[in-house]
User: Fold these one by one.
Assistant:
Number 1:
Amino acid sequence: MKTMTKLWATVAICGAVFSSTAFADPHPDAELIIEGELHIATRAEPPEHLGGVLPEIYSGWLFRTDETRELQMDDFDNPGMLFAERGEDRWYTADGSAEQSCADCHGDVDSMAGVRAVMPKVNENGELWSMQNYINNCRTERMGAEAWGWNSDPMKDTTALISLQSRGMPVAVKIDEEAAEYWEKGREMYYTRFGQLELSCANCHEDNWGRMIRADHLSQGMSNGFPTYRLKNAAVIPLHQRFRGCIRDTRGESFAEGSQEFRELELYVASRGLGLPIEGIAVRQ
Amino acid sequence: MSDVRPRIRLPRSANAGDVVEVKTLISHNMETGLRRDGSGDAIPRQIIHRFTCEYAGKMVLDVEMEPAISANPYMEFDVQVDESADFVFTWYDDDGSVYSETQSFEVS
Amino acid sequence: MLTRRDTMAMGLGVAAVAMVPGAASASAVDDAISAFTGGADVSEGGVTISAPEIAENGNTVPIAVEAPGATEILMIAAGNPTPGVAKFGFGEGAATSRAATRIRLGGTQDVIAIAKMSDGSFARGAVEVKVTIGGCGG
C-alpha cells in the first residue's frame, strides 16, 4: 500500500509539472542559419501518417535557449564538429587485415550525401539496419576489421561525419513495403507505456510538447538532429543512447543500443520527422 | 589521452594594426576527479590545466584552468596583429602532455 | 545492475560533476579571492560578466568576462564544490582584457570575477546564473 501511494504521488507530481508556462510554444521566429549562409528549415508540414496529431513538425532546435541555439549556428562553436573532424581522419586511414580505408572504396566522404537521410533502412536480406550496422558490416566483412561498439568513440565520430554529409537534406526514411512491418512495431512501441512512471514517448512528445517538464522545454522528440552534441554529456550522442536514457527515466529497464526494438523505434521516430532537414550534428541540452 | 585535437579559428584576413578575434577549441574530457565509476571508485582527475597563446613572440593570453572548465575547452580572446607572424597555441595536460599548434597569419 | 542512485542521477538530468554533495563554503570563496588580491581592497565596477540568465545545462555554460585595463582576471563559481574556475592573464600581445569560455556550474549560483588592474588595484563584478534541472535528462 505504502509503495502504491508513493508511486501515485510521483505520478501526480509528474502530472502537475506538465504545466503551461510562458515558454509554452517553440520559439516563434528563430531561424537556423549556419555561418550566416546555410539556411536549415526547422519547421515543416507534418507527414500524412500522423493523421493530424501534430499541427506542424518542429526541430528540437526551436525548443532550446538562445545560447544553446547559437552554438549550432557556427561550425566552429559547435563542439560536435570536433568529432566529425576526427571521423574524417579515420575515413582516410586504413584499418583491418584488408588494409583498406573507407576512402579506398567510397572515395571522398561527400559520396555519403543522402545516406543519413534514409536511415534506418532494410538491407538486402530483409533486416532493418541502422547506419551503425552498415558500418560494422563493411568493417567485418570487407575490411577485415573489428566491429565498433555502438557508443564507441570511433562509431560516434564516423556516424557524425556521415550525418554531416546529409545536412540540409530532408528526412526520407522508407516506411512501406519491406519496411512496413518494422515501422508498425516501432509505432506500437512509441505509444507503449514503460517503467514505474508508465510513460510512453507519446505522453511527452505528442501530448505535451511545448510545455515544461520541470525546467526542461519539451520538444516533439524529432531525431533529425542525431547524432547530436549534448551539453549534458559534452559529447556526441547517438539516438539509441538517448532512447535508453528516456526509458531509464521512466524508471524502467531499458533496451540495449542496437537492439531490434530500438531500431524499429528509430525508424518510427524518424518517420515522424519526414520532411524536416537533417541537421548534421545538432547541439542540444 | 587518446586523440586530443586542437582547432583554431582565425579571420581570413586582416590589416596591420587590426584587432582580431581568436577562437580555440580542443577535444579533451576534462575529467574533474569528482566523478565515481560503477564500482564507486573516484575516476582520477585529468584536465588541461593551462592554455597559452603567443603572437609574434609576445604572450597574448595565459589561462590557468580548473576542473570547472567544460569538456572540450573553448577559449576566445582578442589579439592586435601589427605584423605578419606566427600564432603559437599550447595546452598543458595534467598527465604531462603538451599539445601545441602553430599557425602563421598574414596581415596586409 | 541499475542502482537507485544511478536512476535518480539520470532522472534528475544533472551533470555527473554536480552529483558531489555540498557547495564551497563562503570562506572558501573568500580564501580564493584573498589569495589573488593578497587581502587588498576590491572596488565594485569595471568588470562585466556575460552569461545566460538561465543555463540550459550546467555542464556547458558559455560565459565571457571583460575588464578594460586588467592584466589578470580571476573567475570564481561561488556555489561549485570548489570555487576556482580560471585565472586569465592578458599579456603584451592582448588587444583587450576580455576572454570567453564554457564552464561547469553545479547549480544556481553567483559567478564572480576579480580583475587586477595595471596599477595594482582590484575590481569586482558578479552575476547570478540560474542552472536548471531538466525533467528528463536521459
Note: Chain C is about 15% helix and 40% strand.
Number 2:
Amino acid sequence: MNMHFSTNIVINIIRMLAVIPLALIVDGIFRKVLARMQNRAGPPIIQPFYDIVKLFGKKKSDSRGYKNIFFRVIPILYFLSTYGLFLFILGIINFQFDFIMFIYIIVLSSGLYIILGLVSNSPFGVFGSMRDMLLMICYEIALTICVFSFIVYSDVLSLGQLNESWMILKLPLASLCMFVVVLVETRITPFDTAEAEPEIMGSVETEYSGKGLGLLDMSRQLKLLFFVIMLTKFLFNPAGILAFILFSILILFILIFSEATSARYRTDQTFNILLIVLLLSVIEFIRLYILVW
Amino acid sequence: MHDFSLPIGPVNPSIKEPTCIKLNLEGNIIREAKLQLGYVHKGIEQLLEGKKIEQALYITQRICGICSFSHSNGFVHSIEKMIDYDSPKRVKFIRTLITELERIQSHTLWMGFMFHEFGFETMFQYLLRDREYILEVFERVTGGRVHHAINKPKTVKYDLRKQDIKFILEKMKILEKQFAEYLDIVKTDEVTKKRLVDVGIIKKQQAKRYCLVGPAARASGFNNDIRSKHPYDAYPYLDFDVMVNKNGDAYARLTVRLMEVLESIKINRQLMKDLPEGDIPKSNLTFIKEGMATAQVEAPRGENFYFTIVKDNVIDRIKIRTPTFALINILPVLLENRPIGDVPVILHSLDPCFSCMERVIVVKENKREVIDEHAFLHKYCDQHH
C-alpha cells in the first residue's frame, strides 16, 4: 500500500513537471500556426523556451515599481495560482466538492492578475487592471455557473468523477458560454480587450521585465494549456488518451482560428457581450433545474 | 475635474511616428485631448533654401517615405509653371502612373495599420503582402522600392518599356481580386463594423470649416479632389470617379480608401491602354533667373501644396503644406467624449504623417511673439539662428 502511494506521488510530480514544457510547446504551436494563417513564417516551435531562458537570465528591473514588494511577489503568486489549477484538472487533488476550490483558484488567479497592474505604478497597467476588473464581474460568474451546470448535470461531487461524455450536445448553451469565457481568459480576439496593445500599450505587463515578465509569460502559456484541457474535459471528455489529445488539438485550432479571423471588441462592447453570456449561462442553469429536479 | 491624465506617445504602439497626445480622462472617457507636436521637426524648408533646383529635387523626394513621388511632383510642377513648360503627354502618363501606384501602396499600408489598430492582425499581414506587389513594380520601373525618384524638371528619368506594361497589368489583376475580397470582408465583418461605424464622425460642415483634404474629407461628403477639381498631368485625359461617402465616420474613411484603391487600379489600366508612343525628352539643367509659382497635387493623403520662389537659379523660399497639416487640427475635437479604446482608431483614420508635416509656427502680434514651447526649442536651439 505504502509502495503504491509513493509511486503515485512520483507519477504525479512527473505529470506536474511535464506541464510546463508542454505549455511552452503548445504556445509555440499556437504562434507557428497563427503565423502560417497570417501568411508569415513565424517563430520556431521552441521559441517560447528561448524567450523564457532569456527573460530569466536578465538582471533586476530598474522600474520605480520595483521598490514595491507586491511588484516582486505578485508575479510569483500569479504563476503559482495558475500552475495550481493543473492539480485539479489532472486529477491529482481529488476530494468532495473540490470544484468550489477549483473555481476559487481560477478567480484568485484572475484577481492576482488585476493586482499586478495596480501595483505596477503605470497608468497603462492601471488601465489594464480596470478593464479586466470590469470584465471579470461578468466572466468569472458565468464560468462559475457553467462549471456548476456541468457538475450538476453529471450528478457528481468532485471534478475527478466527471465522466460524462459529449456534454457539448447535452448542455449547448453552457458549452458556448464556457468557450466565450475561455476566449476572454486567454486573451484571444475578439475578446482580448484587457490586453489591447495599440490602446493601452502592454496593459498590465507594461512595467514588468526580466524574471517577472518571464513568470507572467509562463503563466499565460500555462493558462492557455489549462483552458484547452478544461474545455476538452468539460465539452467532449472522450474515452482514451489519444482521443483526448485529438480533441485538445481541435480546440487549440479553433482558438487559433478565432485569433486569426477576428478583430477586437471595445471594452463596452465586450462587456455587453459578456452580459449576454452571463444571461445565457443562467438560462442554461434554469433549464437544467427543470431537467434534473 | 479630471480623474487622471494619460499620455499617448511619444513612444506608443498606436502611433507609428513620435508625437504626443495628452488625454485628460474621466474614468474611461476622454474629456480633453491636447496634441503636442515637435518631435520630428526636420527643418526641411530652411534646408531647401539656397539649393539649386536639381539639388532641391533630391531633398523634396525625401520629405515623406510613403508619398515621396507626390512631393517631387509638386515641386517639379511649380518649377515647370515658372518656366511655362508643358511636358510631353508620355511623361505626363508615366507621372500619373507612379502617382496612382503610390496611392495604392499608401492606402494599402494605411489599411494594414488601421486593421492592426483594432486587432485584426491577419488583414494587416495580408495587406502588407499585397503592398509588396506594388513595391515590385516600383523596383522594376523606377529602380527604387520606397524612394521611387523618377521625376525630373521637364521629364522623367526612365521610360516605360513594353514588358513593364505587361508586368504592371499582371500585378493589377492580382490586386483587383484581393481588394474586391477585402471590400467584402469590411462590408460583412461584424466586429470591424462595431469598431468603426459612428466612431469619429466628421460632418460635412465641420470638414469644410477645418479645411480637411483627401480621403478624410471625401468620407464626409466634401469633395476636394485635386485630380478632378484642378486636373494636372494625365488626369484630363482619364475617365474616373471620385469616391465620396456621406457618413463621415471611421468606417466611411476605410471604405472610401478601399474604393479608391480599386479606382486607382482602373486608372492604371486606362493609362497602360492609352500610353502615347514616342520618346521622353532628355533631362538637362534648369536655370531660372527669377520666378514664383504654386502647385497642387493630390497625394494619397490629400492635397499637397507647393509654393516656390526662385532667385538666381537657387531656391529663395519654399512653403510646403502637406495634407497632415490640414488633417491633424480636428483630432482633439474628435477625441473628446470618446472612450480610450477609440483613440488609435480615430487617430489612424485620419492617416497622419507627422515627419513631413511638422513646422515651426511663429505668430507675431506687434512685437510679442506667440510661439509654441516645442517650436521655441527648435527655433532657438537651431544653430542657424
Note: The longest helix of chain B spans residues 89-117.
